[in-house]
UniProtKB/TrEMBL annotation, chain A:
Membrane topology classification: Multi-pass membrane protein
NCBIfam families named in the record: PRK11301.1
Lineage, top ranks: Bacteria, Pseudomonadati, Pseudomonadota, Gammaproteobacteria, Pseudomonadales
Protein name: High-affinity branched-chain amino acid ABC transporter permease LivM
Gene name per UniProt: livM
Keywords: Cell membrane, Membrane, Transmembrane, Transmembrane helix
Organism: Pseudomonas arsenicoxydans
TrEMBL record, chain B:
Compartments (UniProt record): Cell inner membrane
Originating species: Pseudomonas arsenicoxydans
Membrane topology: Multi-pass membrane protein
Pfam families assigned to the protein according to its UniProt record, in alphabetical order: BPD_transp_2 (PF02653)
GO terms classed as biological process: D-alanine transmembrane transport; L-alanine transport; L-isoleucine import across plasma membrane
Swiss-Prot/TrEMBL keywords: Amino-acid transport, Cell inner membrane, Cell membrane, Membrane, Transmembrane, Transmembrane helix, Transport
GO cellular component: plasma membrane
UniProt similarity note: Belongs to the binding-protein-dependent transport system permease family. LivHM subfamily.
Transmembrane portions of the chain: 12-36, 43-63, 69-88, 100-119, 154-171, 200-222, 278-296
Protein name: Branched-chain amino acid ABC transporter permease LivH
Molecular function GO terms recorded: L-isoleucine transmembrane transporter activity; L-leucine transmembrane transporter activity; L-phenylalanine transmembrane transporter activity; L-valine transmembrane transporter activity
Amino acid sequence: MSAQSSSIDLKKSLLDTLLAGLLALVIFGPIVGVVLDGYSFNFHADRVVWSVAVVMAGRFLVSAFLQTSHGKKFSSRFDLTGSGVTVLPPGYKSNMRWILLLVVLVAAVLPFVANKYILTVVILGLIYVLLGLGLNIVVGLAGLLDLGYVAFYAIGAYGLALGYEHLGLGFWSAIPLAALLAAFAGAILGFPVLRMHGDYLAIVTLGFGEIIRLVLNNWSSLTGGPNGMAVPSPTFLGLEFGRKAKDGGIPFHEFFGIAYNPNLKYIFIYTVLFIVVMTVLYLKHRLTRMPLGRAWEALREDEIACRAMGLNHVLVKLSAFMIGASTAGIAGVFFASYQGFVNPTSFTFFESALILAIVVLGGMGSTVGVVIAAFVLTVVPELLRNFADYRVLLFGVLMVVMMIWKPRGLIRINRIGIAVPEGVAK
Amino acid sequence: MDALFLQQMVNGLTLGSVYGLIAIGYTMVYGIIGMINFAHGEVYMISAYLSAITLALLAFFGLHSFPLLILGTLIITVAITCAYGWVIERVAYKPLRNSTRLAPLISAIGISLILQNYVQLTQGARQQGIPTLLEGAARLDFAGGFVQITYTKIFILLASFIGMGVLTYIIKCTRLGRMCRATQQDRKMASILGINTDRVISYVFVIGAAMAALAGVLITMNYGTFDFYAGFIIGIKAFTAAVLGGIGSLPGAMLGGLILGIAEAQFSSVINSDYKDVFSFALLVVILIFRPQGLLGRPKVTKV
C-alpha cells in the first residue's frame, strides 16, 4: 500500500459497505428479484446479487475515495450555497461572437449537406433549445418551478391543429397566435398562484399540465382524442413544399425554378426555426440586462428583500411566466408542423421533466448551457437507441446528482463586472 | 338516486381514507422541512408492488388464511417501504439541506423518475394485479333501494382509521412525537435543546412511507390492479387532500382526504367519470386561490 492510501480507515469503509449491501438487499431484493407474472412470480436471484454487488462496490469506492486527500478536497468543493453568478473582471472580452459566427456558418451549410434524418434530429434539437430557453426564463431566472410547462407546448401545437381545422389558420398566423394564447393561459394560471409560496406553483402547474393532457385525450369530438389531429404543412408566401401544390397552385420549387427536393419542408422549418431560436436568444440576452431581467434574478435570490424594496413580485413573476409560456407556444407550433400531426402522448409529464432536465443540466439561467444541454439530451438518445429504456432512469439520476453536486448547473451565469471610475473613493 | 348517492358516499369514504393516509406523508414532510416530497406518490407505487410480491411469496410458502396473509403482507410491505423512505431521504434530500430552494424539489422529481423507471425495467410495463382476498359484501336495505359495501371496503375503512389513530397517538403522546412537533415548530431551537433534528427528519420520512405503504396495501386490495405509473395521479390527489385540509396539519390531511374522496366519487357518478382527475386538479387550483391555508391550517407568516 502506498503512503496515501494507508491513511484510509479500512474498517470504516468495510462497515459502510456492509451496511449499504444490507440495505440494498432489503430494498432491491423483492422488486428486482421477484418479478410478478399474473398472480404468480418468477425468481431472479442473479439480478439481486448483481444489484447488491454493484451497490457494495460503489459504496466501498466512494467511502475509500472520500478518505483520501483528493476526496476530501473534492467533497469540500461542493458548491452548495455559492451565489448565482460569476462576476468577470471589467473589460472582459467574451469570444462568444466568434463562436456565434461559427454556429451561424455551420447552420447555414447544414441544409445543403444533411440528409433527412440529420435534419429532423437537428430540428428536434432546436425545438428543445426553444423550450429550454423558455423554461430557463421561468425556472432559471425567476426561480419559479414550472412542472406543467408542456401544457403551453401543447397549447401551441393544438392551437395550430385546431386553428387550421376550424378557422383555416396556417403556420404563419399560428405562430403569433399560439404565443399569445399560451401567454394568456400562463397569465390565467399564474396570476392567482404566483402570490403564494413558490412550492405551490410547482404542484399547481403539474396539475395544470395533466388537466390539459386529460382534456385533449377525453374531448374526442374537438381534439380527436388519442388519435390526434392532422396539421397542415407550412407554406412560404402561400407556396407549398409538396411536389404538386393543392388546388392547382404553384409549388415552391417550380416558382423558384429549382429541382424538387423532398426535404424542402424540413429545410424550411429548420431555417425559420433557426431564425426564431436566434431571435429568442438575442431577446433573452437583452432581457437579462434590462431592469425586468434583473428583477427576476433578484426575486429568485430573495423574495422578501425584493418586496421590501418595492418590487411588485406578482407582476415580475407573471411576466417571466408569460414570456416562458409564449416561447413554449411557439415551440409547439414548430413541433406540430414538423410532425404533421399532434396527439396527447407527446405532452406527458415526462416531456416536462425532460425540459426541466435540460435547464438543470445546462445551468439555471445560463443560455449557452441550455443550448448545449438541449442538444445533448435530445441528440444523444437518438444515437443510443439501444439504451432507450434507460433514458428516464438516466434523467432521474442526472437531476439528483446535479442538485447535489452543482445545483446551479454545469455552466454558471457570468456577468461582466463594472469598473469603478477613477477618482472615486473605493 | 338516493341509493346511488349513498353508495358513492361509501365508495368515496373508502377512497378518501386512503388518500388521507398518503396525504399524511406530504403534510408531515412539508411541516417539518417545508418541502413538497414529489417522490411520495412513487413510494406508494413501490408499496403496491411490494404488497403483491409479498402476497405471492406468502401464498407460495403455503400461507392461505386471510388474517395471517394480510398481517404478514402489511408488516413486510410497511417495513420495506420504510427502508425506501429512509434511503430516499438519505440519498436525495439530506445532502441538500442547506442548498438553494429549488434543489430539493428538482431532486425529488429526479427520484420519482428513477423509481418509476426502475420498477418499469424490473417488473415490466404492463398492469399487475392480485386476486381478491376478501370475498363477499354487506347489503343494507332501506326504503329507496339498497347499498352494497364489500367486506374489503369495510376492512379498508377500519385499517386506515386504526393507522391514523396509531399515528395520532405517536405524535401526541410519545417522545418521538414530541421531538417531531418540536422540530416542526422551530428546527434550530429544537437542535439547541438536544434533539437530533436530522434524525427526526429521517423519522418523518419513514413515518410518511409507512402510511403510504398501508395505503398501498389497502388500495391494491380494493382495486386489484396497479402499474408503474400509478403513483403519479394518486400522489397529486393526496397532495390536493393535504392542501385542502391545510398543509402541515395532521387532522387536516385526514379530513382533506375524506372530503376529496367523497367529492370525487360524487362528481364521477353525477357528472362525468372521464373528468374526475381533472376535477381533482381543478379543486386543487381553486383551493390554492381562495384558501391557500386549507381548512385546518394557519396562514403562514414568513419571518425574516
